[in-house]
TrEMBL record:
Alphabetical UniProt keywords: Membrane, Transmembrane, Transmembrane helix
Keyword Transmembrane included in the entry's annotation: yes
Record field: transmembrane: 157-176
UniProt superkingdom: Bacteria
Species this chain originates from: Nitrosospira multiformis
Protein name in UniProt: Uncharacterized protein
Length: 193
């Protein structure tokens, strides 16, 4: 009877852990365009998408706002909205967060991009950067992306560790409850006799 309870409890804990893990896995998988963290929306339908690449480190990896290493970085902006392809669009990368006050490390002059893709290259050191994408229209179009280069993102670490931490706490609570149950105490005392 007690083995049956232990098995049921174990299955319950395993189910909870699997549900937490699956939820976390789906959150970083293929998501709808509107839910993509690399997508920026302005108004009802004006959208751009940023991708960053460092082929000298990881040729096939694509990044958005968390750049893992220093060095040459290729930036690709997809102009999802067709109307953005008909206005001059420029890019400014600054070290810091202020487009006006902080040091500009890369500037691509506003120009037309009929294919909907803006390509640029910059060299990034460790630190915080901001990518400003501006369109010369009325009203002006303005998007921005914060970049963290070779920095630890404690929020991501916390999100990744919360599932295993909850599972460990549930397992500890379950083990405590079993060890304090009368059946377990009776069984342990019968084993000592």
């Amino acid at each position: 009877m007690m083995i049956k309870q232990v098995m049921q409890g174990g299955v319950s804990i395993l189910t909870v852990v699997m549900a937490l893990y699956c939820g976390a896995a789906v959150a970083h998988g293929k998501v709808a365009m509107e839910e993509d963290t690399c997508m920026r929306r302005l108004g009802d339908n004006s959208m751009v998408h940023l991708s960053a690449y460092q082929p000298q480190h990881e040729p096939s990896d694509q990044y958005c706002t968390e750049i893992p290493k220093e060095g040459d970085t290729f930036l690709v902006v997809d102009l999802v909205d067709q109307a953005l392809r008909d206005i001059p669009i420029g890019i400014r990368v600054v070290k810091g967060t202020s487009e006006v006050e902080d040091e500009t490390v890369t500037y691509l002059r506003p120009s037309y991009h009929p294919d909907g893709v803006i390509r640029g290259e910059t060299s990034l050191d460790q630190g915080l950067y901001t990518v400003f994408i501006t369109g010369e229209s009325v009203p002006p179009v303005h998007y921005q992306y914060p970049l963290r280069v070779k920095m630890v993102n404690y929020a991501n670490i916390f999100r990744a560790s919360i599932g295993p931490l909850i599972a460990m706490l549930l397992l500890t609570l379950f083990t405590y409850k079993i060890m304090k149950s009368k059946r377990m105490q009776n069984w342990r005392s019968s084993r000592r006799s």
